[in-house]
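[step 3/7] inverse_fold.run input=structure_tokens len=440
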């Protein structure tokens, strides 16, 4: 899945504490809210009465954002979508129209609660929303998470959480504060919420295929969308509308899309990151200006401390063989994760009925907000998986062997000097052998 043409934002602000009205606080407190959460400035709807509304704001109104809003509305009958924010007004209008078709009674968005432009996320977070769904392009995720935590909002954030190591470190720091405030942080790495996947991984962890020797992750698929420049738009506007095709905005498709597969490899290794990686990549199909500076294929070998390897392959090309699957070879058997199947000495296949994984993650999110289950904190693995994807990109861009720690502690920061219309970011396709990964 890909987040499509979603919201942009600006550099990190100093956000006010929760701006919810005192009357709303009194209502929620009367429903059984812990006063400790209120003292932290958190609009805590934890353990609120079953019928109390949960006010949700969406930052990033493209396809994935609109889908997340639908999932949120389906997760709890008293969820209300009350505010929308995006860099572009036409995305807001399209999202609003789409949601109104099925959820008009719980779509309480007004013209005054729609916010457009680079500062739109700040304006939305200054409202009395309880929850934010963060579905903008990955570049903006650190700004949005930092601001949402400062404002005391419950957070659902799409994958990945950043496009560079500096951004990941900012997210890690913000999520520590979120934990102190008792906020839920739920990641869009949705395979973690797939029941069949959960049981398959659990059986592998329990030794049903013996010791893991190697894993292989394939995400071989067709190209995704690209945009051509519009008459009269600036370079920055074109890049922001065409965000998937620019590394500073998407992280390249190894980070934006393939992070799902890499997260599963991390999960299999008990969320311990690999030691180092090397690989190759390039672009054969993406040759036009609308393709920006991203590659169309990557192949990476990740080496783990236990001696196992993950061979990771992703490709976005037309008229080619497509396959998305994760293969695990063990000493006494093998597994296919997406098929939820184990072969070998102890064969097994999942036959249960599943909730669609995007829906499942929102179901659990709102249960946690209601106090119907433990608080959710997905921050550790969502940051590590993002760094693993960035490591894969950097070894392919550079043609070098790099360690996980080198990349995680590196100085790479892809932010522009200013978030404003006009000149865009330089578009330079990385050339292995001459591209240098920035070190700390």
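[step 3/7] decode complete -> sequence:
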């Amino acid at each position: 899945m890909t987040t499509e043409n979603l919201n942009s934002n600006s550099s990190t602000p100093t956000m006010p504490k929760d701006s919810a009205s005192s009357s709303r606080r009194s209502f929620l407190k009367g429903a059984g809210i812990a006063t400790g959460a209120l003292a932290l400035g958190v609009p805590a709807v934890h353990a609120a009465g079953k019928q109390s509304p949960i006010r949700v704001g969406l930052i990033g109104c493209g396809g994935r954002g609109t889908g997340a809003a639908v999932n949120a509305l389906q997760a709890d009958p008293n969820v209300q979508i009350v505010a929308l924010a995006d860099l572009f007004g036409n995305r807001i209008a399209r999202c609003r129209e789409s949601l109104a078709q099925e959820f008009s009674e719980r779509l309480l968005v007004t013209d005054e609660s729609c916010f457009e432009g680079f500062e739109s996320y700040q304006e939305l977070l200054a409202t009395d929303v309880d929850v934010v769904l963060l579905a903008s392009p990955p570049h903006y995720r650190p700004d949005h998470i930092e601001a949402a935590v400062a404002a005391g909002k419950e957070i659902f954030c799409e994958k990945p959480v950043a496009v560079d190591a500096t951004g990941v470190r900012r997210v890690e720091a913000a999520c520590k504060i979120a934990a102190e405030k008792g906020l839920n942080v739920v990641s869009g790495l949705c395979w973690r919420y797939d029941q069949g996947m959960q049981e398959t991984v659990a059986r592998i962890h329990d030794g049903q295929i013996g010791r893991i020797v190697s894993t292989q992750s394939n995400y071989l698929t067709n190209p995704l969308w690209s945009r051509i420049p519009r008459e009269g738009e600036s370079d920055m506007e074109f890049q922001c509308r065409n965000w998937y095709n620019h590394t500073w905005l998407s992280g390249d498709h190894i980070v934006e899309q393939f992070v799902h597969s890499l997260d599963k490899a991390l999960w299999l290794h008990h969320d311990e990151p690999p030691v180092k990686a090397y690989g190759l990549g390039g672009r054969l199909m993406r040759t036009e200006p609308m393709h920006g500076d991203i590659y169309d294929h990557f192949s990476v070998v990740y080496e783990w401390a236990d001696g196992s390897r993950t061979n990771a392959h992703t490709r976005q090309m037309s008229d080619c063989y497509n396959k998305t699957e994760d293969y695990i070879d063990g000493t006494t058997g093998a597994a296919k994760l997406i098929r939820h199947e184990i072969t070998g000495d102890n064969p097994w296949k999942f036959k249960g009925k599943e909730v669609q994984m995007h829906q499942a993650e929102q179901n659990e999110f709102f249960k946690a907000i209601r106090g119907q289950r433990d608080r959710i904190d997905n921050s550790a693995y969502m940051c590590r998986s993002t760094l693993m994807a960035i490591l894969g990109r950097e070894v392919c861009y550079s043609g070098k062997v790099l360690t996980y720690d080198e990349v995680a502690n590196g100085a790479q920061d892809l932010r522009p000097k200013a978030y404003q219309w006009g000149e865009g970011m330089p578009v330079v396709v990385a050339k292995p052998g001459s591209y240098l990964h920035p070190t700390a």
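[step 4/7] annotate
Confidence is low (pLDDT under 50) at residues 1-43.
Residues 225 and 244 are 8 Å apart (CA to CA).
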